[in-house]
Design a protein that fits this description.
With 219 residues, the protein is α/β, with parallel strands linked by helices. It folds into two domains: 118 residues, Response regulator (Rossmann fold, 3-Layer(aba) Sandwich); 91 residues, Arc Repressor Mutant, subunit A (Orthogonal Bundle), CATH 1.10.10.10. Helices cover 39% and strands 23% of the residues. It is built from eight helices and twelve strands. The strands form three sheets. The chain has a five-stranded parallel beta sheet, sandwiched between helices. The radius of gyration is 19 Å and the shape is elongated. The structure holds calcium ion. The site of calcium ion has 5 residues, from loops.
Length: 219
């Protein structure tokens, strides 16, 4: 099991990332300032660091610079505001392994985390998810139902992928919303229901079951 250090001072984002990583089997430590981040990263107890740039006490740039100057090679995925990506990349001087502009969908962060954790296993990574006669090919991002190819939009594909990664499991509306649309999406939105409808139309109505009061399940 991989251990991830999350350095993020905004509680909403820290908890969104923590919950998502834990749900995917990672052990997570969260710290809210740069000095704690540096201390925790120095301990060597973590396989990867998710590092916010705008941290109190010591910012993400200083944390990363200190780590790299001490010879630490721990993979670091940096979180930064979308409008300052260019400045961030310049400021990092190549010390980070990847960048995640905010706001982001959890699946995007997860993909980067997985990639950085296993750089030498990329070839062996699972690229086709199947449940029954339903298959999602993750490389060309194509769906197949009983051997027939089905066109899905990017959102539909992300939603279908979430279902296929948790077959038979009831997924709450809020869970799907934060996974596929991101943490800044209005929780009162009915967009999940709308997209489940689209998926049923394309993949077969009986495939996604409504579990009243709880959410949806792939059967
Ligand atoms: Ca921040």
């Amino acid at each position: 099991m991989s251990r991830i250090l999350v350095a993020e001072d905004e509680p909403r984002i820290a908890s969104f990332v923590e919950k998502g990583l834990k749900a995917n089997g990672f052990t997570v430590t969260v710290v809210g300032d740069g000095l704690s981040a540096l201390d925790a990263a120095r301990s060597g107890d973590h396989d990867l660091v998710v590092l916010d740039i705008g941290l109190p006490v010591l910012d993400g740039f200083a944390v990363l610079r200190a780590l790299r100057s001490e010879g630490s090679a721990v993979p670091v995925v940096v979180l930064t505001a979308r409008d300052s990506v260019t400045d961030t990349v310049a400021g990092l001087e190549g010390g980070a392994d990847d960048y995640m502009p905010k706001p982001f969908r959890f699946e995007e962060l997860l993909a980067r985390v997985r990639l950085r954790l296993a750089p030498d296993r990329q070839g062996g990574e699972l690229t086709v998810l199947t449940v029954g006669d339903l298959a999602l090919d993750l490389r060309p991002r194509r769906a197949h139902v009983g051997g027939r190819t089905v066109d899905l939009s990017a959102r539909e594909f992300a939603l279908a992928e979430t279902f296929l990664r948790h077959p038979g499991q009831v997924l709450a509306r809020e869970q799907l919303l934060s996974h596929v649309w991101g943490y800044d999406f209005d929780p009162g939105s009915n967009v999940v229901d709308v997209y489940v409808r689209y998926l049923r139309k394309k993949l077969g109505a009986a495939r996604i079951e409504t579990v009243r009061g709880m959410g949806y399940r792939l059967v």
